[in-house]
Request: fold
Amino acid sequence: MQSKLEHDFGTPESHAKESVTLTIDGMTITVPAGTSIMRAASGAGVQVPKLCATDSVDPFGSCRLCLVEIDGRRGYPASCTTPCENGLNVRTQSPKLADLRKGVMELYISDHPLDCLTCATNGNCELQDMAGTVGLRGVRYGYEGHNHTKSQKDESNPYFTYDPSKCIVCSRCVRACEEVQGTFALTIEGRGFDSRVSAGMGESFMDSECVSCGACVQACPTATLSEKSIIQMGQPDHSVTTTCAYCGVGCSFRAEMQGNRVVRMVPWKDGKANHGHSCVKGRFAWGYATHPDRVTKPMVRDKISDPWKEVSFDEAIQFAADKFKSIQTKYGRDSIGGITSSRCTNEEVYVMQKLVRAVFENNNVDTCARVCHSPTGFGLKATMGESAGTQDFDSVLDSDVMIVIGANPTDGHPVFASQMKKRLRQGAKLIVIDPRSIDLVRSVHIAADHHLKLRPGTNVAILNALGHVIATEGLIKEDYIATRCDVESFNKWRNFVSRENNSPEALEPVTGVPANEVRKAARLFATGGNGAIYYGLGVTEHAQGSTAVIGIANLALATGNIGRRGVGVNPLRGQNNVQGSCDMGSFPHELPGYRHVSDKATRDLFGAAWNVTIQPEPGLRIPNMFEASMDGSFRGLYVMGEDIVQSDPNTQHVIAAMEQLECLVVQDIFLNETAMYAHVFLPGSSFLEKDGTFTNAERRISRVRKVMPPLSGLGDWEVIQKVAQTMGYPMNYTHPSEIMDEIASLTPTFKGVSYERIDELGSIQWPCNDEHPEGTPTMHIHEFTRGKGKFIPTEYVPTDEKITKRFPLIMTTGRILSQYNVGAQTRRTANVAWHSEDRVEIHPVDAEDRGIADGDWVGITSRAGETVLRATVSERMQPGVVYTTFHFPESGANVITTDNSDWATNCPEYKVTAVELTKVTQPSEWQANYKRFAEQQINFLHQAEAKA
Ligand code: SF4
Ligand code: SF4
Ligand code: SF4
Ligand code: FES
Reply:
């Protein structure tokens, strides 16, 4: 059900350039051609009664409630399906129309339960509204005959119900599932009176293809599809617009509230990243914010074997500040550092890196982007001059051919995937480069033109092979190269990539992809019109992650696919604020705006503003912090919002490093795996408790608005500020907007950004400055940020992680739609109904060789360690490759990943681990130890809570 808090124009907007002028109820109205009469009237303040129309889907014309009279036309056309034309004279009200509408409503109501007063959508029901609008005062037909009022509800979905007794068969849900979401899970089953909405082949919603995006619920005009939260809590009294805290799509939502209590999250129609669409996480999985596991009191202890002691914020911060100071006195200035998180706001990340640089007086600050998209920053900066994707999401609607490499958008970036699928259904071509048959390879009305099912670890080889075909078959955009690119670097690249050893034929034994298929894909990309490349962690999390990003940029440059709509190089960012956390200077070598710490002018700029001296040497990266901890030179760490023990590779090594620290401070909303090794716990706040901004994968800065006060009493930025003050540094912001003002004053790409400006424009894509006061949807239009686009040869170097007789399979990892990252949030929601454990997917041939059946427990052993998961036997994998997700700590997926990493950025090689699988009957030793340790730590927490 759409909320009354948003206006519904009835039919989608027309983007036609020509306009038409007509008269509606005596008013002269000019609208873009293709606009329906209903929408034109609505825009002019005239609401034509309607039931089957809503502005998120194309009109259907089934309810006959929106009839109008048009001079010179016979009958009563439906205003939702009739487009405006020049000179039309339309009447939306007349005695005859009123009679017809009343008759339609009478039929609907005669087969509808009259329990309005106790119905969950009472007061927000379009059927109820329309009965009032048409002036229905009685129903001539009784309930004695055949009707649907006793039909059984489907309660299978954890978040919404389907009550067929209230269905008016308007098909808005079916169209939303098709047009908005692209899943095609719903149909209208039966004919005439017997017709009803059905999920799949008469299945329940949970058993069907439904992915619980909520689009149908939003489209439904009655209580048929209703959020369970609304049924339990009732209707909201106000709403606040904010931004989803899950993935890098950065969907805008209206948090609909009763006082400080969220009643539901509704995707915001004006959100420029999502246009009113959502996925199961942002739409429904927000209950973690008030989960009983939230730790809301600060705690301290001397040793990790001690129970926790609840203390005040002042005491906890004093404890941490004293420890940090004494560590620095004893071991030197560089013996402490901080780790920021892409789940935090820009303002929090900025303040955290400022704490490290201005108060700790070193550059030992790093961010979780180290383990995901650091190669993106490196590769795109080297080739184009800016560490960010080149397009906005809407650009995909102008793409003619897309390459999706190392990304699984339907699971990782679902709302963008829906937009992508829409364009594919319109006829755009698709090349998928992935070891696994992801959903995009084949799903309803979508089929990849080419699936290059490569071996994990061979991205660079396949990119070189594609480049080889483009360079040797005359498919280079020579004029683009001549005007936009560094020609010398291009010539070097062309010579390199044209070598025979880079041909698809020579590389076929390496990649496992038939040369002919590579050739066809390369020709399609180079000649198919606007070509866009979308990529994810399947590109970056490799020993050659940065090389592959450069390889992608080379392909885009060679084919002239940068600098206009429909093209570009587009990293799909994993977490909500990966782009922002990188922008904010949380890398050890860069100050905000990607300016190197070795640059004196930049250091002086920040030094003057902060009244300190910035160190000219880069600080420690996360893996270097672990090593330094092991060698005794690094002794204090402040981790904000990140769970390095679960998310970083080679868990045993990370834990050993944590155990060596004299002071580990963790600021988080839950006692996560890292916090179990901490000495100070500072309670953090969820996105619902924050004011600030997130920057999504398209560089879009959106506001995060506080809808409830922080459960701990303090916002995260306030806690960091108190740490700074307690360590003797004057930091005195009174609101996050002041932090953004400081960022804007010191960072040229953010110069025009302020909270007022974001409120005014809805959101802003950086760069936003005097030249681009409203932001920059497409980058590098006339020239690249670095001037000329630079080609860099990308020699393929096989990873050191080789399969052997002992470890004959390659394991690769990924994520699933319903869970998010380390699962700390989504595991504490009803999303576990879809995914309650991590499993290892194995090809039937490999499974049979090892006597493994679907559902068996299997031990996965690598050079780094061993863990045990249940098996899913699936042809999605190719023989020789196994796959798992990493959302549950007890799975220990990172116990088996090695500490191999990208040569340029140290981004871990999560995607390639040589393993062997064997059938087992019990958990691994690591899992048994983990269970004991976690239970002890949870006990310590409960003891502290009980004492307080
Ligand atoms: S929730 Fe989404 S996927 Fe499921 S039926 Fe509704 S629109 Fe389709
Ligand atoms: S479930 Fe709702 S949207 Fe779907 S046909 Fe029935 S009334 Fe219409
Ligand atoms: S998780 Fe991503 S796609 Fe889903 S609602 Fe949130 S931002 Fe949108
Ligand atoms: S709203 Fe136009 S026919 Fe239903």
Summary: The chain is about 30% helix and 15% strand. The mean pLDDT is 92. The two ends are 44 Å apart (CA to CA). The CA atoms of residues 345 and 360 lie 21 Å apart.
